[in-house]
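User: quick one, sequence for these tokens?
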């Protein structure tokens, strides 16, 4: 039987939850999120599944713990008032020896009928006594008196000093049913948090490492393959453009761009090599936010997406009265609102594209948003030709105050030039199978991409790794 962690993404990666009555070790360097993880697990157990929990702490005082955890959305005061939670402050209590402390914890487990127990930390507990305790005996006592008798799942926190390779005393890991290691790293100048499953006795370890964040509480970014993306059902919320800047149709993206998505903007979206995800799902909300506010939208699909894929991802989400304002260009395409490029020369094709943009601008009286797959252009005509049209392309966007989003893969040669010319530069990449976007210009942290769909609305959410 498993007990659900209630922490987003966690159950997915450990085979459905923690096994009831198991002993789990959570290890990590200082500040890696051990307390947030364990507290979140207790909090959700009590709040969502009605499983009482006890937090036995050598690490922080009651006030610090309650205050800090509130910042992550865990209100323990409320749970305590409801009789579902108890904080045991082992810092201030007087005890004779390890068995004293242990009996005290045990009493509380029995009286609260606790189903979840956290000891923060086992390292501190082991050091708190004059005589070094026998770690093996102690853990055996936990196993027989707490886990086996009461079925109370227990989480032991292990503190790993900086620069230390070893996790604990070398005994706990063998006795534990699962061992999780939390890490904080730097990834190209931005913070990255990782959790590794070193051991799991109740389920197969399919993947060892995952990315997590402490934003709004502990949550793991699940690999795309684990959580299949549902097709969008509802429409996108229309987010009004402002006088000086435009909305991308994705609120979380607007927030990080801080008004830099402007008329005359030449922008870049770079897709890393290993990214396997339907890009049209990201283009669609942006395009729709322009279409549904009466703007013209022109799309030259990037490599890997056909014009009909783009069409299917956008047309169902636009107001019928604005459908005529969507133009998709293609080299062979037939279909709704598709303009076929001749493919004779790039200059000719671009002239055609620029004409379509001008026509739409005149028709709607508004700036036109265009998406251009520069990888498609370079693959068809080569780097030299692509560079030749770049100057005029930028000048046109700037002069007419239209908006552009160019899409590239890093292997193409004009990438450097496009980066230099762009006002906004975003990059999409996959880390441990999960999808992230980040701003290179303006610089942002890594943001996990998730798709939220309901009958009413489809929405893209971006969650920062902090
Ligand atoms: N309000 C907050 N919002 C987001 N992150 C925060 C907030 N307060 C602290 N942090 C971050 O949370 C992390 C601390 O998490 P936590 O206390 O769970 O770590 P820990 O592994 O238990 O550390 P220690 O070994 O010191 O006990 C720190 O990296 C800190 O930067
Ligand atoms: Mg801690």
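Assistant:
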């Amino acid at each position: 039987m498993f007990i659900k962690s209630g922490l987003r993404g966690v159950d997915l990666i450990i085979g459905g939850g923690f096994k009831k009555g198991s002993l789990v070790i959570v290890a990590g360097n200082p500040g890696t999120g051990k307390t947030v993880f364990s507290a979140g697990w207790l909090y959700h157990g009590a709040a969502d599944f009605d499983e009482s929990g006890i937090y036995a702490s050598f690490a922080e005082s009651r006030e610090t713990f309650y205050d800090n955890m509130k910042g992550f959305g865990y209100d323990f005061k409320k749970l305590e008032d409801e009789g579902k939670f108890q904080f045991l402050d082992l810092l201030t209590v007087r005890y004779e020896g390890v068995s004293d402390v242990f009996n005290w914890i045990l009493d509380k487990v029995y009286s609260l009928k606790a189903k979840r127990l956290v000891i923060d930390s086992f390292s501190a507990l082991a050091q708190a006594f004059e005589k070094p305790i026998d770690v093996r005996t102690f853990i055996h006592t936990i196993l027989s008196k707490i886990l086996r008798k009461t079925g109370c799942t227990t989480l032991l926190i292990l503190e790993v000093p900086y620069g230390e390779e070893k996790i604990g005393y070398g005994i706990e890991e063998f006795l534990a049913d699962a061992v999780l290691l939390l890490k904080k790293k730097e990834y190209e100048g931005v913070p990255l948090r990782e959790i590794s499953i070193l051991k799991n006795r109740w389920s197969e370890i399919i993947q060892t490492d995952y990315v997590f964040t402490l934003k709004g509480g502990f949550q793991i970014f699940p690999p795309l393959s684990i959580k299949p993306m549902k097709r969008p059902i509802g429409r996108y919320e229309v987010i009004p453009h402002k006088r000086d800047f435009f909305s991308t149709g994705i609120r979380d993206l607007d927030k990080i761009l801080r008004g830099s998505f402007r008329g005359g903007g030449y922008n870049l979206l770079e897709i890393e090599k290993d990214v396997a995800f339907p890009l049209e799902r990201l283009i669609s909300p942006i395009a729709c936010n322009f279409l549904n506010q009466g703007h013209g939208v022109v799309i030259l699909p990037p490599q890997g997406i056909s014009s009909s894929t783009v069409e299917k991802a956008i047309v169902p989400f636009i107001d019928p009265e604005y459908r005529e304002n969507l133009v998709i260009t293609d080299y062979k395409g037939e279909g709704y609102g598709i303009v076929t490029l001749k493919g004779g020369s790039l200059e000719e094709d671009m002239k055609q594209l620029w004409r379509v943009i001008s026509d739409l601008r005149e028709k709607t009286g508004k700036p036109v948003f265009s998406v251009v797959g520069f990888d498609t252009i370079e693959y068809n005509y080569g780097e030299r030709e692509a560079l030749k049209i770049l100057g005029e392309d930028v000048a046109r966007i700037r002069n007419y105050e239209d908006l552009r989003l160019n899409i590239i893969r890093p292997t193409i040669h004009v990438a450097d030039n496009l980066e230099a010319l762009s006002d906004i530069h975003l990059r999409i990449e996959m880390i441990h199978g999960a999808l992230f976007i980040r701003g290179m210009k303006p610089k942002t942290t890594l943001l996990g991409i998730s798709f939220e769909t309901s009958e009413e609305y489809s929405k893209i959410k971006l969650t920062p790794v902090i």
